[in-house]
Amino acid sequence: MQKDDQDMAQTPQNEAPDSVLITPVAPIANSTHGGRAKCLQRLVRLDLPVPRTVALSFQAVHGIAQGEMPDMAAIVEAFPADALLCVRPSSQDPDWGGPGAILNIGMNDARYVDLCDSLGRDGAAALYLRFVQSYAVHVARLDPDVFDDVEDGGPDALSEVLHAYEAETDEPFPQDPAEQLAAVLRSMARAWEGTSARLLRQAKGAPADAGLGLVVQEMVPGFGQGECGSGVLQLVNTKTGQPQITGRYLSQSQGRDALGAGAEALFLERDPRGPSLEDSAPEAFADLKSHARLMRQRLREEMQVEFVIVSGAVHILDGVRVTRSAQAAVRIAVALAEDGIIPRAEAIMRVDAHILTELLHRQVAPDATRDVIGHGIAASPGAATGRLVFTAAEAQASAARGEPCILVRRETSPEDVRGMHAAVGVLTERGGITSHAAVIGRGLGLPCIVGASNLKFHSKRKQLVATDGRVLTRGDTITIDGSSGEVLAGQPEMLEAAEDGAFQTLLTWADEVRDIGIRANADTPEDAETARKFNAQGIGLCRTEHMFFDPGRLTVMREMIFAETSEGRAAVLARLLPMQREDFFALFRIMEGLPVCIRLFDPPLHEFLPTSKSGQRELSEALGIPVSDVTRRVEEMEEYNPMLGLRGVRLGVTVPEIYDMQARAIFEATLDASKEGDPVVPEIMIPLVSAKREVELVKARIDAVALAVKAERGEDFTYRLGVMVETPRAALRAGEISPHTAFLSFGTNDLTQMTYGMSRDDAGRFMSAYVNQGVFPEDPFHVLDTDGVGELLKLGVQRGRAENPDITLSICGEHGGNPESIAFCREAGFDYVSCSPFRVPVARLAAAQLAISSQTGKSPRESLKS
Ligand code: PEP
Ligand code: MG
Asked: Is 835 a catalytic residue?
């Protein structure tokens, strides 16, 4: 904040003058007169050629809306007698909007006659006519239809418009400039207080009582000798943020109508379309550039300059923050810091962490035409175009042909993972933000929409029926926008991902200040590579179950399920051991000594058995047993509620051979990988714990495996055993669990599911109704429920740490990548958060912003607005 801001921010609203001429020392502040008034004062302080401007305070404008007019004579006297005026809104935050500007106040019959001399009759008539029309519609609130019969540009257009006005209002068009101005102020003040305007700005985050200031500015006549015209100029490209002088300019002197829809001449210094301002008025152009540079330097922001040129002289009417794409926002913040204009910490605070996601993925171009055929939950960001396929096998075949495809499924299961790898995007009818498709999609950085229940999925007929009845079949091209949740027919124009140098620089600066660790959830070597690319500090969750769905392994898993004895199971699992060892070895090598936290097997075993008759027949052939045995086993393993059934540590206790094999694979891979590089200290995590005894039992077996491997290999290693807190009971009993573990990692997907008693796979069906009716403020699977689930997390942290002060605490549910949840975790004293690899950049920036705001006392959102 600059000194003048500090002074004025302390000006209490009720002491701000009702109206004040903007001078370098006038008492004007953002909080009393709005952003535009304050910006204009800064331009005046920079000695820029700003026309005379009077600022009206929020209080004055509120009074006007109630019928209490300020001293109008004083306002009018601030300007030359024959000046034309314009009024523009000045809200505290430009995003909150405001009524449109009204120009050329003061035009009347007498001014028209005067202007005929300087502008010519047509020019003067056009000016007057436009003012009458805009006054009629915005101030007198007439229906624009009343001018329908007026012939545009006709010789009598002006008198027809004046007649139409009089006929509608029963009064002649007001001639007194002070009266015109008062009416304009009143209409703008009342427009701001109207219900729809209030609702609109509240939706943009404005408080209910947000004030509006108004600025009354002398208009610079856009005519004279030599170069005359008006336009806007900025120093950067709004899409890329790269330095580039761009803008628009309407030149009157080059034979174009400065007031009409004349041809545009781009400012680009080598514009192929004829003479640019640089050619026709090089001095004015040089002045403009230097004014714009000064504004960038002193307003500490990329500004768009609104200007008028009269007889070659530049006048600055206004400066507004350049609108910018996500890519430009990052580039601009970094460039301002690199040029020493703002400190690095401020650059970090100026970028909304959520927008980084846009830079990591292809997007539908903002101006592309969207042929929307349905929508669902935006589960994994980015957009992808491909041909429709309905099974994982079709997806793999399509990928083999080199044809990008979108995999469409009712819902996905682990069997679909290979198909998901082959597809460029995934669309499901069912599921919520933490359903299988959503979690895997985010992990792979694959655009994904789930819960698109307004589309009809006919998997057998290989058809998708759009909300408007259109039928799409296998092979048709669709696009899914995983950022908005929209499903589009065809292929709209796309914007490529843009992780450029500025992106990397900003994140490096962020890492220097953040005070909470960021790891990635990574299951495969590709995930781990992505995690490294985004500088994750390790793997916080490696889900191992996907490793068993490889066709070669699936049959072995099934054989294990059919084994009758512990020895039989162990013997079958021994065949999987080398494969698992390779899996872990690959992860350890990629992570080069960074921590890797491997979660032991979690899902219920029946997920590995075929559900279809043909699948069961095939399995009976593969295992050489009767089909009836297969069917019986499948039925035996069926569960009413598999998510609360025999899974996680419950398998570890009842079918311990699986964990034994996994532990051995981890330890052997640890020794192998440590030989070739940095020593590896694996982390082994037990899922779905609810009782201390579960941990004791599993720990005893894993310790035994560790001792055995050490003895066999004659080599030593260490490892850390931890517990995944996913059940409310584990959180409540963290005090008795923590002495047995090196770490507690909170799995907030299951914890949310169990705290609410709400299935994460089915919640998508009613979630939007719940959110729309305000039952939940947000989808709790998406944004951490800090009240309920959060209370369990806090209890778990306090109780766990009280009994084991050295314990490492983290979160590995999908919430880990969400800036709001990271704030909670940081406050609660977590050591790190772990999230999908593609969310790591967002998490790094958000964590840095939280560290900075804890020092400045300003939230990231407030900083963005300042
Ligand atoms: C969790 O439950 O939060 C978690 C990370 O595990 P999963 O999503 O695999 O159930
Ligand atoms: Mg879980």
From this structure: no
